[in-house]
Batch of 2 targets.
Target 1
Amino acid sequence: MAILVPQCLARLMLILLLIGVSNAQLSSNFYSSSCPNLLSIIRTAVNSAVSSDSRMGASLLRLHFHDCFVAGCDASVLLDDTANFTGEKTAGPNNNSLRGFEVIDNIKTQVEAACPGVVSCADMLT
Ligand SMILES: *[C@@H]1O[C@H](CO)[C@@H](O)[C@H](O)[C@H]1NC(C)=O
Ligand SMILES: *[C@@H]1O[C@H](CO)[C@@H](O)[C@H](O)[C@H]1NC(C)=O
């Protein structure tokens, strides 16, 4: 009995996890009511960045890839180092190599002005 209970609990948790996964659908219109201008803000900013620097499109894709490379696509690559925190931004494969942070900062500023506190940095980067 003492062994069965944890096994049942583990099964129940697995079932709940699978239900949760099957309900967690990605959606391209997730912000359509909470931040209706999101995609047009991002599109305009990215088009503008690419038209003044044609490599920027590839650089933004690479920035996203390197974000996802360490522990998931969580925008952690955007974090600056502090006195007591060393992040991904200055890690070997990224330091002086990743570009486009200013494009993301610009988009974040515009998105926060349009819909404060609604869109995550991870979603904006994606
Ligand atoms: C890290 O340093 C900042 C100030 O630079 C301070 O606010 C923060 O509490 C520190 N965090 C830890 C975990 O020591
Ligand atoms: C990142 O690059 C800067 C400038 O070249 C350098 O000063 C710094 O030590 C590097 N950081 C790491 C963690 O390698």
Note: Residues 4-23 form the longest helix (20 residues).
Target 2
Amino acid sequence: MDTLPLGRSKTLAGGGYGVGENWEIVKEKIVLFSQKARRKPEDIKVVAVTKGVEISKIEDAISLGLVSLGENRVQEALKKMPLLPEEVEWHFVGRLQRNKAKKVVKFFQCLHSLDSIDKGEELEKRARDLNKKFPVLIQVNLTGRETQGGVREEELLSLVYHVAQLSHLELRGLMTIGPVGGEEQEVREIFSRLRELKEEVNREMPQITSFQELSMGMSDDFPWAILEGATILRLGRAIFGERSE
Ligand SMILES: *Cc1c(COP(=O)(O)O)cnc(C)c1O
């Protein structure tokens, strides 16, 4: 298996570079690893994760064309939204609390972390109230680490089946978080497993034609995610540098 040319260096995590330089490095890697995987770089979308990032850096990212932004806390995102252009597409990537479902549906364009029928029904109700069809991805926990959230693999099909009946939600695919600090083989097995699970859903429920996305790959492991078929990368530090929090 290939190893990363830049490894997990400070450079990759953006130490000392501006957003523009970081983004150049990320783009080069997306092109390089897409080629290795015989995929088109245009088929890979980057969500710039802005948690803990100051507004001026986010504005830099937007001016470079990074208009899909990810947040994992509703309150923090709501503070930023009025300060940034309206064309930004907001993705909620964090753990969803039921009492935040309304705000998520109202202010975000997509959720990456649906992991229970309960929350699905709450989102459905809120989306119906707002007369919207709300795009969601289901998060699968493949590392067994509780803190990461996500549905267990064994429960995935029944959750998909249930959510598919909710007419105000649009099922877009799957999301996972790789093992933090994992070695290439371990990380790739997890990403590859997510792809297999998506294919299984596509086979079992071909009527859900929108079920195509694989949101996987963060700053330390996105090249491997590209090799395993990621369609959405969620990148924070690789673009903005180390977070101060
Ligand atoms: C913070 C976060 C990211 C981005 O993490 P980096 O390691 O900074 O790229 C991606 N996904 C989720 C769910 C996150 O919370």
Note: Residues 49, 51, 72, 93-94, 177, 218-219, 234-238 surround pyridoxal-5'-phosphate (CB under 6 Å).
